[in-house]
Amino acid sequence: QVQLVESGGGLVQPGGSLRLSCAVSGSIFRIYRMGWYRQAPGNQRELVANTISGSSTTYADSVKGRFTITRDNAKNTVYLQLNSLKPEDTAVYYCNARLQTSSMRWNDIWGQGTQVTVSS
Predict the structure, then answer these.
(1) Are 69 and 78 in contact (CB under 8 A)?
(2) Where does the pLDDT of residue 67 fall: very low under 50, low under 70, confident under 90, or very high at 90 and above?
(3) Taking CA atoms, which of 8, 56, 73, 75 is between 20 and 30 Å from 30?
(4) Beta-strand (E) ranges in 1-120?
């Protein structure tokens, strides 16, 4: 079974930094897209950033210049570096991947979520 395993959330002061990691576990053929979404209480889940085949990247306007998404294809892992964090960045961050399994099925899967809290 293919899963996403996330790590790296926590509590940080405004202006601080965090690094989130998301690794694909299980037997896969290829990964098309990996990215991060977030959901704050009372809000809809929103795209933070994603990367397609490790080249094309997209960022939400609210995080441009502060967050950076990178992907290690050899490790099937995506990272999100969060800098200059603001209280409004507080949310549960979810990893998402669109991939083909070893049986050639396309799947769109989610991680369990990791809490990021920005507070003094």
Answers:
(1) yes
(2) very high
(3) 8
(4) 3-7, 10-12, 18-25, 28-39, 46-52, 56-59, 67-72, 77-82, 91-101, 106-110, 114-118
Q: Are 2 and 27 in contact (CB under 8 A)?
A: yes
Q: Which two tokens stand for residue 113?
A: 């979520």
Contact indicator for 115, 8 with CB cutoff of 8 Å: no
- What is the chain's length? 120
Q: For tokens 């769109």, what's the residue?
A: 108
Cβ neighbours of residue 42 closer than 8 Å, sequence gap 6 or more:
none
Two structure tokens written together for 51? 């990367």
What is the pLDDT, as a whole number, of residue 54?
57
Cα–Cα dist 67/46, whole Å: 15
pLDDT given for residue 1 in this prediction: 87
Q: Are the CB atoms for 36 and 22 separated by under 8 Å?
A: yes
The pLDDT tens digits for 12-33 are 999 999 999 999 999 999 999 9
Cα separation, 107 vs 92, whole angstroms: 22
